[in-house]
Amino acid sequence: MAAGAATRRNVGRVSPTWWVLLGSLAVQVASKDSDDLVRGPVQPSPIRVPVLRRAYDGAPEHGRRLVGEISGNLETLGYYAANVCIGSPGSMHQLIIDTGSSMTAVPCATCTTCGRHKNPKYNPVRSLTSKRLGCKNPPFHMRCSRCENTQCGYAVSYTEGSQIRGAVFTDHVHFGDGLTAFTERMVVGCQTHETGLFKGQVADGIMGISATRSGGLASPTPIDRLVELRRIQNTFSFCLADHTGQLVLGGTVRPERAAEVQWLPMRDQKFYSLALNDIQLDGQSFRVDRRKYAATIIDTGTTFLYLPPDAYRRLKEYFTTRCPWGACVSRKYRTRYNDEFCYSMRQSEWVQFATLSLHFDGSHQPLHLSPAEYTYEIKAKGALPAAMTVRCLAAFDNKHNGVVLGAAVLRNREVILDRANGRVGFVRTDCARVQPSTSILANNTFLSDRCGQGRGRKLDVSNASALVPGKLVYQLAGGGTGDAVGSAAAALAAHNASRRALRPQPDRARWQ
Fold it and tell me: How far apart are CA 294 and CA 435, in angstroms?
């Protein structure tokens, strides 16, 4: 995953136990008596992904608010995030959307080493629906390899150097809006320690929606859970614009728009990966052995495009020698990174760069990247001539075989991850205008950022007087009106117990 326009660091090995590397995530499951994460040289892996995050000041929020909307950018944040409502009463958290990992985690109210983020920390004590995940017989076919005081824990190290660890809970996550609103129980990491760019980022945490469960915990993603519960079809889509976007869960392609979709088969359904066989600039092949492209991974949590050394060298050579205005060096804009290539230029100039085309197995139609999609704009320090901006190459050297399609080159398309049929679809569209109602996927749902507003399933507190501290028993009532926030408040008043006493204890028989 990624977050800032980013700090590039060497991949580190986490010890003392073992690694699982999935897309841009390296997960370490610590032993029972070892909490420290130690960095060192990485072990060989079929897929190794350096992650790009840069620590910039957060960009101002844009004013437009739509249901299910995600927001972010490349120039100051380097990530895209969604507002997610967790718990009852619900609390809002902004989570980076990451197709390269499976963990959903937010800072815990008890965390003293966590940074200052967009929203208040998650407090499971204040949620009537939170449940501690015990170490024995965890639900959802999970494994608990890290245990503290009988509670399941987790420790994750991301490849750019950030680390998080904490305790595992389950709680209700809110979906939909109005009459379509509902909640379902999801796995939530409540982190008590965070370092690196996780500590400095604006977003509160991360929501992993990878193709498979990663790491020793093997926690199901929100999409996994919704599919298991038959809430959605096994598909979702995301659509990224320069500063906003949309995440759509479930649904089927609208028949009247089916011809718009460019489908590519997944190379390996353990990842959102494709079989890239050639890259061309303005119709001219890079002439790189296709084996060097290895797995080509779709990873929204990585900011930029990563290419194997030979392919990157050819793209860099073009971008640094074939500028539309003549001598590239005359417009060079220096940043603090030696491998970042930027120029001051007018739109009429940068649109003249050649189209970058990615050719995949399973399709005669390449994926065309315009100059707007393989470059990105940064804010210039100081004044520039009229109508000029600074744009940089949004590609970097992967240092080894393999390709990562990060957020930069996924912009301006609705990308459909059809997990049921093992394929990925691309639809050229204006992502700044896409809403769930206009997505190419009909009959969908989305993450709710309304925290209990509107109608939907509610907590049944008709037997609230029977509640006892330390063992909160509740059931979901289907089809009722009202919301979880109001019902939770009623329950709190009904038994007048302390907030800590209200926290439910692990009881697998009552998993919803």
Answer: 34
Burial class for 500, CB neighbours closer than 10 Å (0-12, 13-18, 19+) = exposed
Q: Write down the catalytic residue from 171, 299, 397, 449.
A: 299
Identify the CA nearest to 22 among candidates 51, 56, 63, 64. 51
The structure's pTM equals 0.78
CATH superfamily of 19-248: Acid Proteases (2.40.70.10)
What is the CATH architecture assignment of 259-435? Beta Barrel (2.40)
Query: Which has more pLDDT, 320 or 148?
Result: 320
CA-to-CA dists, residue 209 to 191, 272, 330, angstroms: 18, 10, 44
Please confirm, yes or no, whether 299 is among the known catalytic residues: yes
Q: What is the pLDDT of residues 30-45, one digit of tens each?
A: 323 322 222 222 222 2
Can 361 be counted among the known catalytic residues? Answer: no
Domain ranges of the chain: 19-248, 259-435, 458-510
**Tens digits of per-residue pLDDT, 315-350?**
999 999 999 999 999 999 999 888 999 999 999 999
> Which residue among the candidates 98, 177, 224, 397 is catalytic per the annotation?
98
Q: Do domains 19-248 and 259-435 have the same CATH topology?
A: yes
SS3 200: helix
Confidence of residue 135 (pLDDT cuts 50, 70, 90): confident
